[in-house]
Amino acid sequence: MAYIQAGPEPLVEECPFCAAPAKSDEDALIVHRGTHAYVLLNLFPYNSGHLLVCPYRHIPTYDEATPEEVAEIGALTQTAMRVLRTVARCDGFNIGMNQGAVAGAGVAGHLHQHIVPRWATDANFFPIIARTKAIPQLLGDVRTAVADAWPR
């Protein structure tokens, strides 16, 4: 609701993906820090366990990423899928990048890949009838479970 009520540009003051690495993992919801990219929970998740993979560099689109960034984003995405299968017992994933505001990117200036766990039973009448989506876990609890399950 915080995201919806803030309007179309809730994050204009400071790039949240540039600010996150300077914070503690708990405060930024970071589950893993790599060399060129890191993984964090989406503050406004579509489903429980919704992760984002972001390069540290502030670049808007995938074609501007270096080969090292592309490789690490891919490797972190694979690891995130394995971890979510273990922790959340999900049945599938939606994975993607919205490039630019016109394509639906909430933070268009900083590249980020979505990894959304899906379950066979995760759709119900709430979004249609009540315009509500139930997210059954607190972000801090999900962050701890994913971070603890991340391979060392």
Automatic annotation (TrEMBL):
Gene3D superfamilies, per database record: HIT-like (3.30.428.10)
Taxonomy, superkingdom: Bacteria
Species for this entry: Microbacterium caowuchunii
A GO MF term: catalytic activity
InterPro entries xref list: AP-4-A_phosphorylase (IPR052908), FHIT (IPR039383), HIT-like (IPR011146), HIT-like_sf (IPR036265)
SUPFAM superfamilies from the UniProt entry: HIT-like
Name of the molecule in the record: HIT domain-containing protein
